[in-house]
Amino acid sequence: MIDGQTVKKAKLILRVAGNMVGHSRMGRAALAGVRATARSFGQVLHQLWLEVTGFTFLAIAAIGAMAGVREYGKYQSGQATGPGRLILAVCFTVSFAWFGLSSFWRVRRRAKN
């Protein structure tokens, strides 16, 4: 287990190392390169996150649509007790489709900026 004293020492060492790097031209250039690379990776990972969650929501919406089609068939044949489950399936599908599409729209909006 790491105690508080060890954390304080590590912070002090990192602060001193950061100051030493910041005083040299080569250190500042390396730090700027690391920042630019980290920012680029962060943007790409955020875009990937939005795309994966968008796809997941659209896949769940497709499952809801299949359930809606099944419930519509039951409703048309008179086997359903009422339109409640059909309405629920439609609302579920629309909301998850909205979540998925808005996630992809956010990716496009970020790509334009």
At a glance:
With 113 residues, the protein is mostly helical. 90% of the residues lie in helices and 0% in strands.
Structure overview:
By secondary structure, the protein is mainly α. Helices cover 90% and strands 0% of the residues. It is built from three helices and no strands. Helix 1 (4-23) packs across helix 2 and helix 2 packs antiparallel against helix 3 (84-112). The chain starts with a helix and ends with a helix. The model has no long low-confidence stretch (mean pLDDT 90).
Keywords:
single chain; 113 residues; mainly alpha; 0% strand; elongated
Query: Helix segment count?
Result: 3
**Unreliable spans:** none
Number of strands: 0
Cα separation of the termini: 45 Å
Main sheet overview: none
Radius of gyration: 26 Å
β-sheet strand percentage: under 5%
Mean pLDDT: 90
H-E string = HHH
Q: Structural class given helices, strands, pairing? A: mainly alpha
Helix proportion of residues, in percent? over 70%
The shape, in one word, is elongated
